[in-house]
Model the fold of this input.
Amino acid sequence: MLKIDIQKNLAYVLLDRPDVHNAFNDELIVQLTEAFSELGRRDDIRVIVLSGKGKSFCAGADLHWMKRMVEYSHDENVADARAVGRMFLAIAKCPKPVIARVHGAALGGGAGLVAACDIGIAIESVQFGFTEVKLGIIPAIISPFVIAKIGPGRAREFFITGERFLAPVAMTIGLIQHVVSHEEALDAIVESKISQILTSAPGAIAAAKELICGVSSKSLEDALEFAAEAIARARASTEGQGGMHAFLGRQRPPWIEKINGK
Done:
């Protein structure tokens, strides 16, 4: 259901249920949660790329899984929703940069996956949608991640209509950052972003992700205090000291691997 390919310091996480457009079920949810938790702890991993096998990135919830939900009690529904939430949280709070490589369709929870990632890159023909209302339910568990990306005003429109929209619209509303015309260009931008990330300090990246979450959840005064503490820690860190000394001495920063032995 989930395949992980480690190539040096990169982790490629592949949703591998192409026969159902990589729709979620209990097993895939557990596997994704465990995978991102484990990869986030690994010092050797610098970037994670999330993609889907087959025709779609992810078409949301699996039909057979949804059939079982119809019979769930309130407590069972709450437990199930919390498990799904832990999956999205593991992706969103992963200290490694996470890139979503999106093709085909990203609907419901699939669109939520994209929102949980740091960088979203999609082919222009990709269909997005928060389609839950078409089934009489709501995009509840993905809402914190989606609203953080697109804002409540945009969410009002797309959560209520449940309409599908293409990648250029997804970029306009902030759900993704890049749109390309074909798959080769998709891979080219993914590689470009990876190259940029690898020249940045891994600890600083993790701290920057934490900074975004912390600042966005606080009042202006509390956010400034949070930011002051964050930059003080960064400046005093081994990376901060090494990076500043390297910059002032016009040297390569310590986290960039030597090229050709130089």
Observations:
- The first strand starts at residue 2 and ends at 7.
